[in-house]
Structure formats: structure tokens, C-alpha cells
Design a protein that fits this description.
319 residues; alpha/beta; 16 helices; 13% strand; globular; binds coproporphyrinogen III
């Protein structure tokens, strides 16, 4: 959940010298150093590759920018012509620096620290490709999907195909676990959710099980509430990342018998720290330590997080 990033002074320094955010993602020497920064500082059990879910649209030839204080900005796809213009031939060549980063990180980690590779789920990536930026309701993508289902289907299928190749290449380079981020799964009616979130992730997982058997896959259908169990069952993921709003009793009783669970500390508690943080960490540990469990946040760490609070969190969990 963005263990590297702007809350770390060593990241900010390196980022300031890298030029753009995408240049940082495509520079294996710098990206591997950024990946290792939080491991060196905190000694986590796993590192997550430093990259972004939006390198896929970039590799498909869509214009992608990361604008200071604004986030990602893409040249939006407004109709089926925009989808037809995407170029899939050079995706893996374009992403070769990411695979080199994976190789460098793997050789810089000790054998007991796992390396997690990742991609965005097709729906979440499509919301940025169609909307051109993040939005609270993903209205542009939802509207497109209602207006021209066939064209939207083509886009989602393309994203399944290239994401599968992308994840397999990460494994070939040294990634040992994969996570699929569907951060915007939570705003769809259930039939649309089944079509645009569950089906594509199910295809991705099936492809991974066939091509890189034995590599665990973690899904993150953020904010789908009671549909979390359905997601685990239908997609066949080995692990499920739980968002902050999911009740611990639901995670323990419904999800944990079916998959390893990961989560779900509120990233904002990590900003405020103190007793409230300690109490919640203990509650999570108490509820979930009886089964397969990866302690984590319920969503990405925020830039205001004091690194000392992260260190305190690690001490408490280890203790
Ligand atoms: O966790 C890690 O350390 C690995 C790196 C990672 C990043 N993004 C780096 C990043 C991962 C796993 C992601 C995933 C990602 N990217 C998601 C899915 C997970 C989630 O958080 O919901 C999404 C939706 C994106 C798209 C994206 N990238 C957004 C919306 C933003 C802007 C948000 C912000 O905080 O500014 C980014 C930028 C981004 N990706 C940053 C980092 C460290 C901050 C950019 C910077 O350094 O200026």
C-alpha cells in the first residue's frame, strides 16, 4: 500500500532529482533504490516494486502525466476510436526498465524478504484511461460502459491480455507474489461489478495460474463491502487485501476461511499515531492472527504520515 513515497524524506530527495514521476518509474537504478528505502528503514517482510498502475496506458501509447499536487492526468479516451488507436505491440519492450528494476531489487533483498509485483485491475486502469484523471465516482468510465458496452469490452479484454503478460514478465524477473489493485471497484451496481471487476480479474488469475503456477495472487476489490466474499470465491485469488471499512468480524469469519487476508488499518490513524493507533493495531492483531494474515493498511499510506509512527507500528506488530 505505497510503502515507498512522499512520507519518506529519502524518497522526496531522490524524486526531486529524477525529473518526472514516470522517469523515476522507468529508471531501474533509482526505482530499485526507492523500492528498497522502506525495507532498509523499517525491515518489512516484503517489498513492493516501485512503479505505478498507469505505466500500462503509457505503454499502450496513451499520453500519461503525473502533475504536481494533482495526480495522474491522461489524454482521455472518449469513444471507440480512442480504443482502436491503442498500440499493444510494444508494451513489453516499453516496460523492460520495470523488469530490470525487479531484477535489481531482488538481488538487493535478502532471501527472507519477499518481493511483490503488481498491476492495476482492468476496471481501475480503464477508469483513468477514460476519465483522464481520478474522480470520486468514475462517472466517465461508467457512462462509457453503459453507452458502448462492446467497445468497453474490447478495452477491458486488451487490459486483461497486456496485464497478464506484464505480471508474468515481473515473475520471470524475480517477483514472488503478485497484487492486483482494483481501487475503484466499489462504485458499481452488482451486475456491472460482476462484468467489469470480477470477470477480468478471474481471467487474469486463471492466466497466472496457468503460466506462473505457484505464485500467490492477492486481490484488492476496494470498497465492495459484502461482495468481498463473492470476489474471493469467483476470482480464485490466494489472498485478499481488505479496505479500512470492512468489519474485522467479517474478515475473520467470512474471508479468512477462504483466503489469506491482508489489511486493514486506516492510513489516517498512522498519521495521528498515539494510543488510538496502538489500540486499533491490537484489535486487528487480536481478530486476525488466528489464521493466514498479512498485517497491512486498508489503503495507501498518505504523504503526511510521520515515519516515526510507521516504526512504532512495526515494533508493535512484531511484539
Ligand atoms: O506501494 C508502493 O510503494 C509501490 C508503488 C505504487 C505506487 N502507486 C507509487 C506512487 C503502487 C502499488 C501504486 C498503485 C496505484 N497507483 C494505485 C492502486 C492503489 C491505490 O492506492 O488505490 C492507483 C489508483 C494509482 C494511481 C495513482 N498514482 C494516483 C491516483 C496517484 C496520485 C496520488 C498521490 O498521492 O499523489 C499516483 C502517484 C503515485 N504512485 C505516487 C507514488 C509514490 C506519488 C507520486 C509522487 O511521488 O509525486
Amino acid at each position: 500500500m505505497r510503502q515507498a513515497g512522499r512520507y519518506l524524506p529519502e524518497y522526496r530527495e531522490l524524486r526531486a532529482n529524477a525529473g518526472s514521476f514516470l522517469k523515476l518509474c522507468y529508471n531501474p537504478d533509482l526505482a530499485s533504490r526507492v523500492t528498497l528505502q522502506p525495507i532498509e528503514r523499517f525491515g518489512f517482510d516484503a517489498a513492493i516494486l516501485f512503479s505505478d498502475i498507469l505505466v500500462i496506458p503509457d505503454a499502450l501509447g496513451q499520453k500519461v502525466d503525473f502533475v504536481e499536487n494533482e495526480g495522474p492526468v491522461l489524454d482521455p479516451i472518449v469513444d471507440r476510436n480512442g480504443i482502436e488507436k491503442l498500440k499493444r505491440e510494444h508494451v513489453l519492450d516499453h516496460l523492460a526498465p520495470v523488469f530490470e528494476t525487479v531484477r535489481q531489487v531482488r538481488s538487493g533483498l535478502d532471501a527472507n524478504t519477499a518481493l511483490i509485483g503488481f498491476c492495476g485491475a482492468p476496471w481501475t486502469v480503464a477508469t483513468y484511461m477514460v476519465g483522464g484523471r481520478g474522480s470520486p465516482d468514475q462517472a466517465a468510465a461508467r457512462g462509457f460502459a453503459y453507452r458502448d458496452r462492446e467497445a468497453f469490452d474490447t478495452l477491458i479484454d486488451l487490459l486483461v491480455d497486456v496485464s497478464l503478460d506484464y505480471l508474468c514478465a515481473q515473475v520471470d524477473a524475480g517477483a514472488q507474489v503478485l497484487q492486483i489493485f482494483d481501487s475503484w471497484a466499489g462504485n458499481l451496481p452488482e451486475d456491472e461489478y460482476a462484468r467489469w471487476c470480477v470477470e477480468p480479474v478471474k481471467k487474469l488469475v486463471a492466466g497466472l495460474k496457468a503460466r506462473v503456477p505457484g505464485v500467490p495472487v492477492i486481490g484488492f476489490p476496494r470498497a465492495v463491502g459484502p461482495l468481498y466474499a463473492d470476489f474471493v470465491e469467483k476470482t480464485g485469488v490466494d489472498g485478499v487485501s481488505c479496505d479500512t471499512s470492512l468489519p474485522l468480524s467479517y474478515i475473520r469469519d467470512v474471508l479468512q476461511p477462504r483466503a489469506a487476508v491482508q489489511g486493514n488499518l486506516d492510513p489516517l490513524l498512522l498519521v495521528s499515531g498515539g494510543d488510538a493507533l496502538a489500540r486499533r493495531v491490537d484489535e486487528i492483531l487480536e481478530a486476525l492472527s488466528g489464521g493466514p494474515f498479512i498485517f497491512n493498511l486498508g489503503h495507501g499510506i498518505v504523504p503526511q504520515t510521520p515515519p516515526d509512527h510507521v516504526a512504532e507500528l512495526v515494533r508493535r506488530v512484531r511484539g
